[in-house]
Amino acid sequence: MAKANQSGLGRSEAASGLLLISPTAIYAVLLLAAPLATVVMFSLLTGGRGQITWDFSLQNYIDVWTGPVYRAIMLRSLIVAFGVTLVTVVIAYPIAYFVSFHVEPSKKSIWLFLITIPFWTSYLIRVFLWKVILGYNGVVNSGLLSIGVIDEPLQWINYNVGALIVTLAHAYAPFAILPIFVSLEKIDRSLLEAGQDLGESRLRTFWRVTLPLSMAGVIAAVLIVFIPTIGDYVTPDLIGGGKLPMIANMMEVQMLKVNNKPLGSAIAVSAMFIVAIIAVGFVLLNRRFIGGQK
Is the entire prediction scored with pTM above 0.85? Predict the structure, then answer.
């Protein structure tokens, strides 16, 4: 009798649990799994110029992985994404460190509030502002001309990979600052004091204690910045002047302009596959650091 009651109780708890998560599960299936499955299905079809043939084939993937244009654009996208991630994290870490260790606890919320101010404006407005700053007749060139540093406007500061990296790093900097700040806040300050009591300098204490303990936040910041950066298509179109397309721009061309949805889907799935491999590598690295801290 008792076993029957326990089994009935277990089934009721399981049913309650399933009922509790069912809205989220349905939402995930409808808005995440179903669209992804549709893209994968389209990538296996054949067609072009708006015509789709329901003949399953891997030809689209062969074209994407063997085509020199697609490989070059994917390589450029990875270079830009890694460059943006590196610059963003290098800039974000000192800011997060300063707020965590050198700002009074009562004022930290104000600093975090100030860090989020860029989100008050539209992403497009921020990109256009950088175009104005780095443009041929922009703020940088006008300022250098007015003080006599240059005789004619610089052309290499815009429409290049460097301009893309600067613009995207500014856009995603808050995303990197916040997780690093959280990881720094979790560090037990007594560990730092113990290191200095044992004769370690501040620099060695940072290198051997603070940095390893905050690596989980650094890796989280890397993922948060890298994944959306590689899929950005607005900034390359505006800052790059259409001359430096990234993989997302190629998807847009195939999907909307050429109207070759199977090939565009194959590009999207290939990009997701590459990003997933890199992301899994960072996640495993993150788990290694967390395991080492334990």
Answer: no
